[in-house]
Amino acid sequence: MTPPVSLALQARIADDANRPFAEELQAALAERPRRISPKWFYDAKGSQFFDRICELPEYYPTRTELSILRSRAAEIAHQIGPDAEIVEFGAGSLVKIRLLLDALQSPRRFLPIDISGEHLRGAADLLRNDYPGLEVTPVVADYTRPFDLPARLPGAGRRVGFFPGSTLGNFAPDEALAFLRQAARLLRGGGLLLGVDLVKDPQLLHAAYNDAQGVTAAFNLNLLARANEELGTDFDLQAFSHAAFYNAPHRRIEMHLVSRREQVVTLDGRHHVFEEGETLHTEYSHKFTVDGLRAMAARAGFGIGPVWTDPQRLFSVHWLPAAQ
Ligand code: AVI
């Protein structure tokens, strides 16, 4: 016999894997203004949408950062030095880490950190095959919370963090500072290679988050589809629309899901009323100035190293030495 929907639903929410998402969404729907962490974008479908975003003509950050890493690889490798241990925050783009590894002199170890063990294992296996001399040590952890790294390898060079893609911009300012403070502690005596998007013409920014093909809209709305699938919510996807705009005083793109009409959404038996025009805020994407980023890094305990940008100064890659 098929169990009643409410029982099936309770079973799904009670499922340990779904509980953190259910708890955070419940809290987000109850607060005003409503805000949920962008980390919930990245289920398998969301990650595919993000890969497509990175290829869009309007979305300049990925290709611009890649061009900087390619053209400045030798200078970056010089800062890092030989026999380094590279710590990547997030099991990110294999293209970017390969660019770095290919430029480095005898890198000793690669430590990707990700909350998803599955994601990590995939990234680790692919790299092990192609870099036989490199030790790959995946670390399953939420890098936005306190955690520790395995002890350094005897005789290894600097421990260097790699945080590309302007993911730092997705944190709220206090979260970004907390992340940098933790990175400075973990990378003592080494440094952080950090890619961040720069403040620019708001029209360019607007286009990057409102692409003509609607991929960013689908990425945003997928959060609701994921909730329906995993948590049994009853979001009507037709009744919400994607909104992304540049908030100039805060130097950030804000993404929201806007209710197109008055409606009620139910999660685990709790009803949440959306008025027409009410939003669920899903993402910040902060844009930085070089000086602003350096000031924040200094507050977190980093020194100031070289910064590399593209000729149009769309994006920046920073070398931030970490004190001993
Ligand atoms: C992952 N992150 C840096 C992207 C960004 O630009 O903030 C996520 C994204 N959101 C919409 N488009 C891309």
From TrEMBL:
Origin superkingdom: Bacteria
Keywords, alphabetical: Methyltransferase, Transferase
Gene Ontology molecular-function annotations: methyltransferase activity
Histidine-specific methyltransferase SAM-dependent domain sequence ranges: 21-320
GO biological process, any: methylation
InterPro entries: EgtD, EgtD_Methyltrsf_superfamily, MeTrfase_dom, MeTrfase_EgtD-like, SAM-dependent_MTases_sf
Residue ranges the record marks as coiled coil: none
Protein name (database record): Methyltransferase
Lineage of producing organism: Bacteria, Pseudomonadati, Pseudomonadota, Betaproteobacteria, Burkholderiales
